[in-house]
Amino acid sequence: GIIALPLPDRSQLTRYFYAPIDGAGSNFFSRSTDGTTWANSTNGSVPQERGDLGVFGTGLTGGIFRWQGFRNKLWYPGSDYVLSTDEPTLHVWDGTTDYKFADLPWNPNQTVVSFGICSIIPYNETNILISTHDSSSPAASGRILMMDVGTGAFTTIGPETNILGIPKNMVVWQGKIWTGTVRTGGGTTSTVRWARPSDATWTTDLTSGTGHGYVVDLAVFQGNLYVAFQADVGSSAIIRKRTSDGVWSTVLTSDGTGANNYLGPLIVNDDDTKIFAYWASISGGAAPINRISESSDGSSWSTSHDIAGTYASGTSFAFSGMP
């Protein structure tokens, strides 16, 4: 056997926090060792711009996980392809070198190449899940792909279902992959669906009301599924909860009525004691029009942070991004 094997001194390692910056033409990674002092990374890697996602990218991308730390590497959509001409790319950064890992496979239900990758999340120790925006015409559509990071092999989840609407975000719950769709036209409905990796089709678990055709985010909190929605003008954004036995209810309604007022992204703290929701009234609501709301039980909500008052009094931020 081996004795006296030297182990690395973690106190001597430099740990970086990376944040992709979408600069609409000058996108880059910024990094920090302490979360306070930031500098642009010089590793040569360039994250995908939001605009690469087509019309969808101009407004409905506030809550997507477009980068993911997985197995000590950073995975993210590359911007080294020509929109609507080349297959979108997936890149990986290992701390030293950035390289293209894969090209996104074609959607067999489409006759054009995909716009790009929306979100990336871990599935298990060897696989990641990737959601895509494939087409805006004649109807917005997308897919969820599972990729083995060891082999680079892609598997389409629910391949026999042509998902109408863009599956912006995903979450794994109850042994199933859950997603909610975004419709790019107003006055439509959206769906919350689930599938297992072995399922041929997706199961629709919830269809929203007209005017809530945009699922912003999904999160699991205290054993239940929470889904945040954006609303059309004249409607108010909502958060709906699904219990483990399949009962849906509305647990939060904003007071906004302006076009595209929304709730989400959703963030759950590490010990599962609080859930946070970004709140943007856009117009028609009481102050603060931009805030972070929190709940310790998923039912009673209060303002945790006044964003509009702290950072730009009286200003409504159109899109929050994903913290």
Task: Report what the structure shows.
This protein is mostly beta strands. The protein contains 1 helix and 25 strands. It has a 4-stranded antiparallel sheet with strand order 4-5-6-7, with no helix packed on it. Strands 8-9-11-12 form a 4-stranded antiparallel sheet, with no helix packed on it. It has a 4-stranded antiparallel sheet with strand order 14-15-16-17, with no helix packed on it. Strand 1 and strand 2 form a beta hairpin. It is globular, with a radius of gyration of 20 Å. The relative contact order is 0.09.
Overall outline:
globular
Task: Tell me the structural class.
Answer: mainly beta
Report, as a whole number of angstroms, the end-to-end distance. 46 Å
Number of helices: 1
Offer a quick outline of the entry:
With 323 residues, this protein is mainly β.
Entry keywords:
323 residues, mainly beta, 4-stranded antiparallel sheet, 2% helix
Write the topology of this structure.
Elements: E1 17-21, E2 28-32, E3 39-40, E4 68-70, E5 73-77, E6 89-93, E7 98-103, E8 116-122, E9 127-133, E10 141-142, E11 144-148, E12 154-156, E13 163-164, E14 166-173, E15 176-182, E16 191-195, E17 203-207, E18 214-221, E19 224-230, E20 238-242, E21 248-253, E22 262-268, E23 275-280, E24 290-295, E25 302-306, H1 307-311
Antiparallel strand pairs: 1-2, 2-3, 4-5, 5-6, 6-7, 8-9, 9-11, 10-13, 11-12, 14-15, 15-16, 16-17, 18-19, 19-20, 20-21, 22-23, 23-24, 24-25
